[in-house]
Amino acid sequence: MLRPKTRLVRFLPILLIIFLGGFFRFYKLNWGENFFFHPDEYHIAAAVNRISFPTNLNPELFSYGSLTIYLIYFSRLFLSLINPSFENLSPFLLGRFFSAFFSTLTIINIYLISKRLFKNEKIILISTFLTSLIPGSIQQAHFATPESTLSFFLTLSVFLWIRWIEERKMWIIFLSAISLGFATATKITGALILPILLVLPFVPDKNFIKHFLRNFRTSLFLIGTFFVSLFLTFPYSILDFSGLRNSMNYEGSVAFGKLMVFYTRQFINTKPLIFQFTEILPFALGWGVLIFSILGLIFVVLRILTSFVERKSLDYKQLILVLSFFFFFIPNSILFAKWTRFINPTFPIFCIFASFFIQEISNITKLKKIKNILTGITVVLILIPTLIWSLMFFSIYTHKDIRLTTNDWINKNVPQNSLILTETGNMLEVPLGGNYRKISFDFYNLEYDSRLQNQLVQYLSSSDYFIVQSRRIFMNHQRLPNQFPLTSNFYNLLFSGKLGFEEIEELDSFPKLGSWEIDDETAEETWSVFDHPVIRIYKKVNFYSVNYYAQILKI
Fold first, then answer.
1. How sure is the predictor about 10, in pLDDT bands with cuts at 50, 70 and 90?
2. pLDDT per residue over 44-75, tens digit each?
3. Where are the alpha helices (H) located in 234-346, listed in sequence order?
4. What is the DSSP letter of 29?
5. 399 and 393 Cβ atoms separated by less than 8 Å
6. Dihedral sign of CA atoms 305, 307, 311, 316 in order
7. From CA 311, how far away is CA 332, in angstroms rounded?
8. CA distance readout (Å), 246 to 240, 250, 349
């Protein structure tokens, strides 16, 4: 039996890793200083404020499940019973707390999964350490959105399934059904891995025919448990099924590209999987984890396929991990809408696959010296780039939000009562305050609305400044000049100076470490526009008539 001091020393590395991951996730949750820039946070907060216990528990929000909403609402209600001042606790900040909390708990899940998959304690720690550093998880922990909670319940389900394979105890798989129900109540895509739960009672079982009825009953029990836990935490998926159906029809149309909306234009003419592996994963994971996780995944898949072909003993734990990954990652990657958050729950699994590659390298030879050298080089090539990139990304939250910095700059450098023309489509646009006349113009519908076209030339003639709020509009339209000729032409003329405006300031908060800085503006737009957009300020230096603008813009 280990002494308390010995146990502490043994668990100290993992405790430090969890603490580090928690620090990255909990640090400066109020990074916008009570300004909130993520639209989904407003949807969540509005849903929380629509609830009133016990008279109305329908959040009327089905794009996400209600578990996160209930968690925020009832936590605030409970705290207000202790201290009435908590009644006014911001649902934004409370939601961010739970995101950081569940994201930190996910690190523990990955540690527990890794303990079941790897025998080498160092590889277990590396897998967990990588998870604590993942920039994509750190970012989501700073948003009051359900992705971090979803990641926790999905990885918990995977851990319980792997443990079930080893121990075959009913309570384990029963808890996994509850966990998966909670995952689906957090976001409906949690149900993507439900088939694994239903098949699990049948494997591994050498007496498949003999035990079929018993295993079938177990499977029915599990699906019943899943739906009960789903109903208890997402009751209006049944009680207001028409609302759920209407929401799913809309969200499905957007996701599959059947309904074109302004905020999905970045995905026009993009290729599934290629987009994720070029515009999302290099930033959300870092190149170290991405490259070696792909190699590790290839090794694991080849081993599983070899076992099938050669009829060798199959490692069901690895199979569960791989199937869980593919069942969630592939459907979310082949959609028209390819937002970073759609594949966020798979980020920790990439860390496990990267660790599999380390294990493969360590087993490549029995010569201890060569093995240590190869393993050491591999670990360095994974850890160092990941650590550097994570620290660079984390720097975003150590600085004042760039929109607040921009607001300060405007107050110091732009004369009061100036007419500022800017872009709409954001939750908030700078300037956030001050004695200015601000016009937020709808560039998204410029192509189709002659009224907007006439307004634009008037505003250009009368405005003193123009502010580009982020890359969101100009990048998406400049690359599609045939579909959006007016908007594309507008930004080409703006940037060339032909509209009479000159760029006087560009403010950014790129990931940074010392003198190293990485421009990540071209990544999938939600990676940057919510917490570190690039803002460009233009001042009118040449004054032109309405007719000039109409002619040059071809309106």
1. confident
2. 999 999 999 999 999 999 999 999 999 999 99
3. 236-239, 241-255, 274-275, 281-284, 287-310, 316-333
4. T
5. no
6. negative
7. 32
8. 10, 6, 33
CA dihedral in degrees (105, 106, 112, 113; nearest 10)?
A: 170
pLDDT, tens digit, 9 for 90 and up, residues 186-235: 999 999 999 999 999 998 767 777 788 998 999 999 999 999 999 999 99
| Of 409, 391, 385, 386, residue with least CA distance to 508 | 409
Long-range contacts from 112-121, C-beta under 8 angstroms, 24+ separation: 112/159, 113/155, 113/158, 113/159, 113/162, 113/321, 113/352, 114/352, 114/355, 116/159, 116/162, 116/163, 116/166, 116/317, 117/162, 117/317, 117/318, 117/321, 117/352, 117/356, 118/355, 118/359, 120/359, 120/362
Integer CA distances (angstroms), 186 to 14, 224, 226, 254, in order: 28, 18, 13, 20
Strand ordering across the sheet containing 419-423:
437-441, 419-423, 465-468, 535-540, 501-507
C-alpha–C-alpha distance, residues 549 and 100, integer Å: 49
Tell me which residue of 380, 381, 393 sits closest to 518, measured CA to CA. 393
Q: Give the whole-angstrom CA distance, residue 47 versus residue 35.
A: 18
- 52 strand-pairing partners: 56
